[in-house]
Amino acid sequence: MAELQLFNTDIWREITEISQGVKKLVKGEADEQKLAYFKTLSRREGPSGANEYIVYRLAKFLNLPVANIQLIKFNQNDGMLSLEIVNANPWQVFPDKNQARQYLEDESIISKIIVFDLWVRNKDRHDRNLVFQQCSKEKYQIYMIYNEHCLFGFQQAPPAPLDDYEDIIRIPELVKNVTEAELINTVSEIQKIPDNQIADLIDNFRQSAPAYLNEAQAIVIKTLLLSRKAQLEIKVKEWYIKNKQ
């Protein structure tokens, strides 16, 4: 099955409702506190919630730094729990964006993010859903945050076309921090993921959480991921030539 872990929600307490269907939660006391955001299924109905969770799992296949997500039940409501990254700041306040790679723990991480975003058709990579955390005196770690604006698309009918590669990266300085070799290396890592592993992830998710994804939507997402995986090297090179100017 798809490892849809249910947290012990009795220990989570609501702090505030940020917007309709989104609550900020806390567990623990004082220095041991952990924060998270809970989004009800009604807010992420249909493929929107599936988009977010499936992309999270794909990122984990590649050991990419991404905010942790789990499906849970909180106060009798089904939804998605996203753990807050401690002491993180949005990309918009990064010290030197144009020379960022020299300050990053993994200097190739921006290349990895760009290729992954192109693969999963992430249409919402802006400077508030890319965050950084200081991990030493001079180095930072970047974390990716995803939402429903990827894969199938946000409440779209019909779904987004499979060959849509426009407007994927909307942070212009990111391209200044990549190399073609890093991009192609990331393509290779993605293409090493067996097709059946991707298909099993989606099928198991649908069986475990049918309210999030129906069979027709699952077929669209599988087709999108596998077709884009097959042509990823060509599309990444086209992106690099177009943007590295």
Give a verbal description of the structure.
The protein is α+β, with helices and mostly antiparallel strands and 245 residues long. It has six helices and eight strands; from the N terminus they run βββαβββαββαααα. The strands form two sheets. A five-stranded antiparallel β-sheet has the order 1-2-3-5-4, covered by helices on one side. A three-stranded antiparallel β-sheet has the order 6-7-8, with helices on one face. The protein starts with 12 loop residues before the first strand and ends with a helix.
Structural key phrases:
245 residues; alpha+beta; Phosphorylase Kinase, domain 1; Phosphatidylinositol 3-kinase Catalytic Subunit, Chain A, Domain 5; 5-stranded antiparallel β-sheet; 3-stranded antiparallel β-sheet; 6 helices; globular; disordered N terminus
Q: Fraction of residues in helices?
A: 25-40%
Mean pLDDT: 83
Tally of contiguous helical segments:
6
Distance between the termini: 45 Å
Shape: globular
Number of strands: 8
Characterize the biggest β-sheet: 5 strands, antiparallel
CATH architecture of the largest domain: Orthogonal Bundle
**Structural class estimated from helices and strands:** alpha+beta
> Strand-residue fraction?
15-25%
At the first level of CATH, what is the class of the largest domain?
A: Mainly Alpha
